[in-house]
Amino acid sequence: EFKGETLTPLLVGIITGFLMCIPIGPLGILVFNTKINKGFWPALFAALGGSLMDFVYFISVLTGLSWFKFNPVITITLKIVGIIFLIAFGIVKIVRCTKKLETNTQKKLAKGLVSSFLLGIIIYVSNPTLMVTMSGLAATVKSFHFFSESFSNNLLLSIGLAFGSAAWFLCLILVIKKYKKKIGPLFFMRANQVCGVLIIVCGIYLSTNIF
Length: 211
Hints:
- α2 crosses α7 and α4 (about 70-95) packs across α6.
- The protein is mainly alpha-helical.
- It contains eight helices and no strands.
């Protein structure tokens, strides 16, 4: 039987991972192109490659942060900065139009499941901003003390993040499968806008914890 303390980091990770991946980036474009050109399973394996790296990056950042003890001043500062970042990021997603998706972004799509998985990893690690994003995200989550600090909780949080990431990409693949002929740039623009609203709501909710 799982205790609430055990489930909390897992649930926080799943929600964080799902919301984090909604904005369409290089991996999302790869998954889209792979589904269109190669089918369901290669697209899913490409997504899983990215989700694996979500786990690796996040557990690495959390392990590093666990060496530091945040005093109340640093904690409240991280909370405020994190909330400002979330709300600003959400506003940008709402007002900024998504550029037309290029279906030839990846000139050489993976031919098999293993190569799709590896390509997902390569596309993920080729993004130079991810470590900064993961560090900021991890510091923000840590500052809110949703659960006690321990390696097992950090592990569950990272596993949840990977599952949340994979869940979003699975949803994306299923939507593409169902609406393949109708889907276009407008879909991705709307997805980013919905993501922006959700992120803003999340930021506002978290701000109530400060007061």
